[in-house]
Amino acid sequence: MKTLSWSAGVALLGLVVCVSSASADTVKCQRSIAKASAAFIQAKIKALGKCAGGVVKSGTGSPKTLCPDTKATSSIAKAADKLAATINKSCGGNDKVCAGDLTGEDLPGTLGWPAQCPIGPTCNNPISTCADIITCLTCADESAVDQEVSLYYDRLALPSIVNPALNKCQIAIGKATSSFLATESKSLQKCWDGVISGKLPPATSCVPPAAGDGKYLNAIASASAKARASIGKACGGTDKAIGGGDDFTAAQIGFSSACPSVTDPGGGAMCAAAVSDLNGIATCVDCATKYKENCADELAVPQLVNPYPAVCVNGCTAAEASGPCPTSASFTADGPNVDLDTGFTGLGHNAHTPTNGRLTFNVIGCAGSNEPTCGQCNVTGPIDNAGGVPFDNHRCSLDSSVHCESAGDCSVCSGGANDHNPCTVASQCPGGACVNDAPCIYYFGAPLPLVAGGVSTCVVNQLTGSLSGTLNVEAGTSATNVPLASMVFPFGDEFHPCPNCVAGKCTAGTRTGADCTVQGTGVYGDISLDCPPPLGALAGTLSINLTITTGNQTRTVSTANPLCTQTGYTSLHCLCDTCNDSAQEACATNADCPISGGNPGICGGKRCIGGTNDGAPCVASSECAGGGLCDKPGQPTQPNSCLDDTTTPLDGHVCQDVGGNEGQCPEGPVVKSCSTNTTHVCDTDDDCNAPGCTDCIATTPPQTCVTKLRPCFTDSGIVGNSVNVAGNPDVPCDGVAHPQVGALFCVGPVSASAVNAAGGIPALGRVRIPGTVIVSP
């Protein structure tokens, strides 16, 4: 592979040298990156625009809160998978997996990519492999399309179905402009592909208003004119053209009164202008669409456009917020890009979650009274999610399939002809009984399928109390306490850790064959709270106080942390253990533990397990009457499962920091896991693709079995060493932000020894959750 050199001041003449020196594999990779990015943008604008247009047409609510729906989410997820698969195949070297076996894999610098994704705080991940390029592109393209759809739809005067002409006009603006964005994306990609492949002269620029290949500018101009004509036809009154005296006004349509203050990186056009009439709307959406598409397009070809245009960094295509401070906000996790690390074995690291995990909460007590000066506000909740059944998380605690508003709603028929249907009296349950199912609570997302070391679990996350915290509306920073009870069910098999919802029916669990609505999609298929695992399979409920924040969190090993108990590690300190009482709470220090046996609790202390004084603190089993054992639950603790480096006494099991708050065992052991479903162990590629099983694991694109060094936490049990998690705030654009929040927490053991052994618990847990925040008035 030949290195592609670049500097911020390089001239186009230098570009000729760079492009011509690239190997065939490098060129193939660069072409695939640009093509995959454009294809994703086109697919997402089609799916999201169709959802938004459908909501406007039906008058059922606001696209801002109802889109993406389940269908759009699935389409967008498939498009993101296709983007990743295309780049993996062309850029992933010998194993066709980015960041897998690096043999034959171009490094980003060779491809012309910078060391960090350049899209401000929204998308700024470090770039060291082509896997990081995938992350950067996906984030930037998602944000670009989200902002454009927000501009087209989010401020419309709704519902407008009582005025069919206005309704048709509003739909036409979004539909025509979405189509224009897709056409421009396709045209620019073809132009750049000609340059990269050598079909066009190397000095050719496809940045408008450059001539490019002589075709793409005409295609864009034609698409722009078509969009303008479509808007005029639907919104232009009797003459069906922009400019007549009976056009719909911006106020009638519900469009922003000002076009966003962004500048086209190519033509230099400034979009900022007052918007009061149809001409202003058409001009604004045309300018803002060109801005977003040109910025997204140029990001995908950094070897040809360097440096990345400064006007594209932090650019928001929405007018400045105005009006009263928001009263509620929602956070929807980007499940496929969640990074969940639990346990010291490393086998439970790098797990992902299903889509649609959403929490909605009240926003109160802001420092100011109106935007854009609301400042820091308090959050409380949770409250009911918008989005219908796919996001319905207000349900009964012992049966998540039953929707409720209060405890009284949790009475259901048990047995008989109306089994499982709501009831208030026994007569409603012929052949059965009317029983109360338990309190009405909130859940955090659909059941979570997890596999570690070949051991399958289904985790159901319930909220056990109120949310609390702060949110800065303008800065996009937040810190929220989320009290969780994580119910752990060893259930199913390695391809079906949780019951699935397939074709509207539950495939397993207590409601096998019953009706269901998909509430989340991931590598283990479609999941729903309508399809809970059986309560009889419960192995334990973990109390986790999840403090999630857009800031950075650190846990540093100190002598206050308990000594590890695994043989060979007893001189080291472990960040987490359990309290010496019957509740066996996860803890980091003695301060986390309640009084036990009349004395201060001890983190990592022994307690009676079983017998007549179960849970009492003890030193020897003779203190545990009735056959109890003096011991600690779970696995003997250790900081990691790394092999000893043989050169460092006592603390030789060292975890190497590899950046991005991640660690790996430099001396091994190695783990073979699937390229997409990274916690699924394998020996061959077939182990990742479940032959004959089409509903159980992600098989498009086909996965490969990848050999990697074992993940680990970077503290290594050494006093003074730390484990970190990085959040990332994002400044809202038209009430929508895309932050990353993170948390560090201790995970306790469960009654299933196989789960404890495979995951390595009790131990530390870490989660990074990118997602979307929407604030609402």
How would you sum up this structure, described in words?
There is one protein chain. By secondary structure, the protein is α+β, with helices and mostly antiparallel strands. The protein has twelve helices and 35 strands. Strands 4, 5, 6, 8, 13, 14, 15, 16, 21, 33, 34 and 35 form a twelve-stranded antiparallel β-sheet that branches. A three-stranded antiparallel β-sheet has the order 27-28-31, with no helix packed on it. Strands 1-2 form a two-stranded antiparallel sheet.
Quick gist of this model?
By secondary structure, this protein is an alpha+beta fold. About 25% of the residues lie in helices and about 20% in strands.
How would the blueprint of this fold be written?
Elements: H1 12-21, H2 24-58, H3 63-66, H4 70-91, H5 108-111, H6 130-153, H7 164-197, H8 216-235, H9 250-253, E1 258-259, E2 273-274, H10 278-299, E3 323-324, E4 328-333, E5 339-342, E6 358-364, E7 370-371, E8 376-383, E9 394-396, E10 411-414, E11 433-436, E12 440-442, E13 448-452, E14 455-463, E15 467-472, E16 478-489, E17 501-502, E18 505-506, E19 520-522, E20 525-527, E21 540-549, E22 552-556, E23 577-578, E24 586-587, E25 607-609, E26 629-631, E27 656-659, E28 662-664, E29 670-674, H11 686-689, E30 705-709, E31 711-712, E32 722-726, E33 736-737, E34 740-747, H12 753-759, E35 763-776
Antiparallel strand pairs: 1-2, 3-7, 4-6, 4-35, 5-35, 6-8, 8-15, 9-12, 10-11, 13-14, 14-16, 15-16, 16-21, 17-18, 19-20, 22-32, 23-24, 25-26, 27-28, 28-31, 29-30, 33-35, 34-35
Helix pairs in contact: 2-4, 2-6, 2-7, 4-6, 6-7, 6-10, 7-8, 7-10, 8-10
